[in-house]
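Quick review question:
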């Protein structure tokens, strides 16, 4: 019985995310195709998310938050203001680093958004894994130089 209630709760959250996405689009007068293009996803996939039939990954939420200045707590949990810091929503696609305008904003996001913090740490971990051999080689070279200097 507990598993059924957990499953229902997860489904309610997925459909809640979809409903909040629709409301974001309505508030910003954004067509589904336009949002899908800005997020670099298929319109059919956005439709699936909005209808509660698909649960997107962390990258999707970061894209929505940065492209449209959406409060992640609102998008994920339905709490807080829909948009962050009273800024107007943005309707064009851009990389996450161009969406953060100051170090203070980045620090605020790291301190106040567990989701954002986890996404940043996940990206850093992915980069470390992808560059593992280069990092190891660099460390070996540095260690060799240090040992050569000790002699």
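Suggested answer, residue by residue:
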């Amino acid at each position: 019985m507990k598993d059924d209630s957990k499953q229902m709760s997860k489904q309610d959250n997925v459909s809640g995310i979809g409903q909040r996405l629709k409301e974001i689009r309505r508030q910003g007068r954004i067509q589904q195709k336009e949002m899908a293009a800005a997020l670099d996803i298929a319109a059919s996939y956005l439709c699936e998310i909005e209808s509660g039939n698909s649960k997107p990954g962390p990258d999707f939420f970061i894209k929505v938050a940065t492209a449209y200045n959406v409060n992640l707590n609102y998008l994920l949990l339905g709490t807080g203001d829909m948009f962050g810091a009273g800024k107007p929503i943005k309707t064009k696609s851009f990389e996450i680093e161009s969406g953060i305008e100051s170090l203070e904003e980045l620090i605020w996001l790291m301190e106040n958004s567990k989701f954002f913090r986890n996404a940043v740490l996940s990206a850093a971990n992915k980069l470390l894994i992808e560059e593992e051999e280069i990092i190891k080689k660099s460390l070996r070279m540095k260690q060799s130089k240090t040992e050569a200097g000790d002699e």
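Why it works: The CA atoms of residues 110 and 118 lie 9 Å apart. The chain has two domains: 1-99, 100-151.
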